[in-house]
Amino acid sequence: MQSKPVAPIGINHLVINVRDIAESHRFWTDIIGLKQVGTFTPRGDHGPRRVMQFYSADHDGRLTHHDIALMECPDLPAPAADGTLTSAIGHIAIALPNREAWLRQLAYLQDQGVRFERRVEHGMTHSLYIRDPNGYTVELLYELPRAVWEGDIQEALNHYVALPTEGEAALEDRVEGVPVFGHAS
Ligand SMILES: [Fe+2]
To answer: Ligand 1 centroid to 49 CA: how many Å?
Structure first.
């Protein structure tokens, strides 16, 4: 008899409710870069009553069934114009494969006119936070090498350096001088 929970291997996917699935499709494909892999259309008594679309990231050159799905819910409230949080989801974190790819994505987003809400040097990731059309915060990150943070995850989680969000400075990212956690310096 199993006496304690079986440890899961990770989060498999996330389904988010969106007001306008075409608008959100554009964000998650043209801005974030996911690929649509499927659609669910309600039929009869089976499954959800709402239209869903399924999206995959790049998994070593292959697609998966879904990392993110959108479920159209036209009655959802619009995000507040003043930036007040309207979503129960804190944020959705999307990983880029490495620093170089992440920097190219930041330049692309800036060129597309996407507003950088926050940019943060964490101890284990370097992160950009933006908003999707429904007010969900999306974190785009690259992960620092495991050796940097695994020695003291608690300290790495608490390392927070806010970085510029506009202009050339918003595309700068230091490599030299980032702290290594859990090693006496
Ligand atoms: Fe995060």
So the answer is: 31
44 CA from centroid of ligand 1 (Å): 39
| Domain extents in the chain | 11-74, 89-185
Q: Tell how far the Cα of 5 is from the centroid of ligand 1, in angstroms.
A: 25
d(CA 68, CA 91): 13
105-163: pLDDT as tens digits: 999 999 999 999 999 999 999 999 999 999 999 999 999 999 999 999 999 999 999 99
pLDDT(185) > 60: no
Distances (CA, A) of 33 to 52, 55, 57, 118, 162: 18, 10, 8, 20, 25
CATH 2.30.110.10 fits 11-74, yes or no: no
Please name the CATH architecture into which domain 89-185 falls. Answer: 2-Layer Sandwich (3.30)
